[in-house]
Specification:
The chain has 486 residues and is of the alpha/beta class. The protein is 31% helix and 21% strand. It has helices spanning 16-24, 39-50, 54-67, 91-106, 142-161, 182-191, 237-243, 246-252, 273-282, 322-325, 349-362, 405-408, 423-440, 470-473; strands at residues 75-76, 83-84, 110-115, 172-177, 202-206, 209-211, 221-223, 226-227, 229-231, 257-262, 286-292, 302-306, 312-315, 339-348, 366-374, 377-385, 398-402, 444-447, 456-458, 477-480, 482-484. The radius of gyration is 25 Å and the shape is globular.
């Protein structure tokens, strides 16, 4: 008879030092199924736990759970003095801001920060949202439209400083991905040769993930050897910039201002010189483009003031009392709470440093109650995330800049067939705006379908906001839908 074989698993006790650390934070249950794991799975579990910054995560969980349900300061409308409305802007002001912005861009003071961590799941695609083609005549992706707008602004800034010059200062583009979108985003840019930009003016970096927790703050185990984790929200950009040392990189490049936006807006004016000039002129730490809320129940967050004389911040539509949402300002005829946040922001680099440190110190994340896949089936627990607008309460001064929805806001969030914010609705907003540009520049349109259901697309390489089109369009007829390019 041979010797009895020993069970390898029985010979491998759990690493005691790691268990003691987990006990310090009440998370020792992560090793509850150790005895059932293979040697390979045990290695995976140890590596997974060792990859976590346990003291930081514990602080975030405790601070976030304890702040839940606390009464926030009462909300007040944003003072009129904080908002530049479309109707009060003079042509002279706009031109002055445009020139100021172009000068700062030609001096290399503007960086662009893109929030691109989301997949196109709701659009029926597993690709990063920026790869999505919304059906324009050119078939360009959202990434390509944005890259070409950057190229156009670089060209305008160069011309404004030195007429006829072909030399330009590159605008550096920082693109935040997530663990799910990082590799496909990089490959997409490489395969499209960065859409005409130089490879070294584009920097990719990843947002973090954070463990999902039960309602009492315990880690939820996705498998017996892996903690369930989720991305830390678009507000994770602040800690990601801090930990990846990109704030230092920006300072070394001479960047002083950051234009920050979300990927899923087909009309976003990336690196908008007018907005930058306004921001510099106001001398504020933070600014946001806002659109007027369409109706009281619209599902958008709005800017408010927290408490008497308090900072500006954003309240989600679900948190705003319906009676407040419907109140009218008798002096202006607008809703009292009417300035919608559409994720178009401008920050100074100094302020981003403050925010990254402040959010890290306070460690308060929003809790999103979700059904989370776990070893016990779907478990009700929390995903923890921060939002980009969490920065605003830290700002000593904030200015809001009203823009027209039909000119700058074409969200792409839901698949075609949904009621709003679809690729089709965004496509039509782009085509209609560009059709208005062409007509204003003296062009004519023919069409076989009603004009409200079609239009033309102007390449961003030709025009950023409708400028420079007379030479291309005057006296010419275009058959919609089509793309107008050089």
């Amino acid at each position: 008879m041979g010797e009895p074989t020993l069970d390898n698993n029985a010979l491998s006790p759990p690493p005691q030092a790691l268990i003691e650390r987990l006990k310090d934070y009440g998370q020792e249950d992560a090793f509850a199924l150790w005895d059932e794991l293979s040697p390979e799975e045990r290695d995976l579990l140890v590596k997974d736990i060792e990859s976590l910054d346990l003291s930081r995560i514990d602080r975030i969980i405790r601070c976030s759970l304890s702040s839940q349900g606390l009464m926030a300061a009462a909300v007040e409308p944003v003072p009129e003095s904080n908002v530049s409305t479309v109707e009060e802007r003079s042509m002279e002001e706009r031109e002055r801001w445009w020139k100021m912005g172009l000068k700062a861009i030609s001096d290399g003071k503007l960086g662009v920060l893109l929030l691109s961590g989301g997949q196109g799941t709701r659009l029926g695609s597993s690709d990063p949202k920026g790869c999505f083609n919304i059906g324009l005549p050119s078939s360009k992706s959202l990434f390509q439209l944005q890259a070409e707008r950057i190229l156009r602004v670089q060209s305008l800034a160069s011309q404004s400083v030195n007429e006829g010059s072909t030399r330009f200062t590159p605008i550096h583009w920082y693109i935040m991905t997530s663990p799910f979108t990082d590799e496909p985003t990089r490959k997409f840019f490489e395969s499209h040769k960065y859409f005409g930009l130089e490879a070294d003016q584009v920097t990719f970096f990843q947002q973090g993930t954070i463990p999902c927790v039960s309602k009492d703050g315990r880690f939820i185990m996705e498998t017996p050897y892996r903690v369930a984790k989720s991305p830390d929200g678009n507000g994770g950009v602040y800690s990601a910039l801090k930990y990846s040392k990109l704030l230092e990189d920006m300072a070394m490049k001479g960047i002083k201002y950051l234009d920050c936006y979300g990927v899923d807006n087909a009309l976003v004016r990336v690196a908008d010189p007018t907005f930058l000039g306004y921001f510099i002129d106001k001398g504020v730490d933070a600014a946001a483009k806002v659109v007027r809320k369409a109706y009281p129940q619209e599902n958008v967050g709005v800017f408010v003031r927290r408490g008497k004389g308090g900072p500006l911040s954003v309240v989600e539509y679900s948190e705003l009392d319906p009676s407040l949402a419907s109140e009218i300002n008798q002096a202006t005829g607008r809703l009292r709470f009417c300035w919608s946040n559409v994720c178009l922001h401008m920050f100074t680099l100094d302020f981003l440093n403050q925010v990254a440190n402040g959010l890290e110190k306070d460690s308060i994340y929003h809790l999103a109650e979700k059904k989370i896949p776990s070893v016990h089936g779907h478990t009700v627990g929390y995903k923890l995330e921060q939002f980009i607008f969490d920065a605003f309460p830290y700002a000593p001064s904030t200015a809001l800049f009203e823009v027209l929805r039909e000119e700058e806001f074409a969200p792409v969030k839901n698949a075609n067939g949904a009621k709003f914010d679809t690729p089709e609705s965004a496509r039509l907003l782009v085509l209609r705006l560009h059709a208005r540009w062409v007509v204003a520049a003296g062009g004519f349109l023919t069409h076989t379908v009603p004009l409200y259901a079609t239009g033309v697309e102007v390449s961003p390489l030709c025009s950023y906001t409708g400028e420079n089109l007379e030479a291309i369009c005057r006296g010419r007829t275009f058959h919609a839908p089509c793309e107008i390019s050089f």
